[in-house]
Write a structure and sequence with these properties.
homodimer, mainly alpha, DNA-binding, 182 residues
Chain lengths: 182, 182
DNA sequence: GAAACTATACAGTCCAGATGGTATAGTTTC
DNA sequence: GAAACTATACCATCTGGACTGTATAGTTTC
């Protein structure tokens, strides 16, 4: 009677472990225990550790895609909509669901090739952002800044206080609207 | 009579392994082999794996500090010098010495607390950047953008082509000089 | 100035425990 | 009755790191 499938629970458990204890602590036993699933149950869903990490990356990729692509469709303003969608999504994620980036860290740790799906998604977004009706360099800088925000959250490097974070976001979003002057 | 101390070689070997194969491949045996040092030799210099990673982080911290702080001292223009130093340093590192960020990944993997020295360094820089004579939000955005560039290189997410990267850097640097208008 | 000793910088081996993964037998849910 | 598990035992391999051994450069003692 899996209301929330155990598969989901396993992914969340794995992400949580990576987030809190680092990827060295990501063992099959630990994930099973955290998810309150037997080891057999884990291996029923993910036949290997690599498969688990693959699932983590895919999960992350799905969530990001849904958010970004959904966001572009709701945006009534054509110009800058990809850039806006990216900024909004990444910013939101960096607040809500920090564990989600765990998939990325885990993949880098175990087998960097597993990052491919995410890399392709990102490459696609970067293309859109460069053709978003804005100055391509300026749009790219906005994108990079949000990624920087994300990096700072993941590793705790020069994190901004709430006020500053808010002002940064507002400024970034402002700049996704075409300017009158220069 | 160690010309280049084996300690250095060990650190470089460890960073290379993390960079190429991910941190799961960072075993004492692998590092020793890569550095052409025996395992005993490794443990002479670093009494534990954690100590090795600590060394990696410290090494990274040192290099960054030297670069950023050195750069501020050479800068003849007072306004924006920290922001400029940061942008220049991180950009340079992202090209030259990609393995250097391995320390960060390794620390996150093994024991996130090991990141502390780097975190303190970054917090200090962030303070300086916010009081750099520029608009504090704008300066912070520049800083974040370079970090984003760094993230994109580390994980291969939406990497920019050479031309775009160059234009981005130039634009970022331009913006570290105070503007006449608005 | 030679012998005795110390410190440093490694080499190489060994082992207890952890880990990924297999197997198997049974149980619950739809 | 098949899918989705639980529970547990088991194994081969890997890993950290303790431990012992050794070469050499420098220091002290007489």
């Amino acid at each position: 009677m899996p209301r929330v499938s155990k598969r989901q629970k396993l992914l969340e458990a794995a992400a949580l472990i990576v987030h809190n204890q680092g990827i060295d602590a990501l063992t099959l036993d630990a994930v099973a225990k955290q998810a309150e699933v037997s080891k057999g149950g884990l291996l029923y869903h993910f036949e290997s550790k690599e498969a688990l990490v693959k699932g983590l990356v895919q999960h992350m990729d799905n969530i990001y895609r849904e958010n970004v692509e959904g966001s572009t469709k709701e945006d009534s303003e054509e110009t800058g909509k990809w850039t806006r969608a990216f900024v909004n999504t990444m910013y939101k994620q960096s607040l809500e669901n920090k564990e989600i980036s765990a998939g990325m860290l885990a993949a880098q740790g175990i087998n960097p090739d597993l990052l491919k799906p995410l890399q392709e998604t990102y490459d696609h977004w970067q293309e859109q952002i460069q053709q978003d009706g804005l100055d391509d360099v300026q749009a790219t800088i906005l994108r990079l800044a949000v990624d920087g925000l994300w990096l700072s959250e993941i590793f705790g490097l020069g994190t901004l206080d709430q006020e500053m974070r808010k002002r940064v976001l507002e400024t970034l979003l402002e700049q996704t609207h075409p300017k009158e002057k220069s």
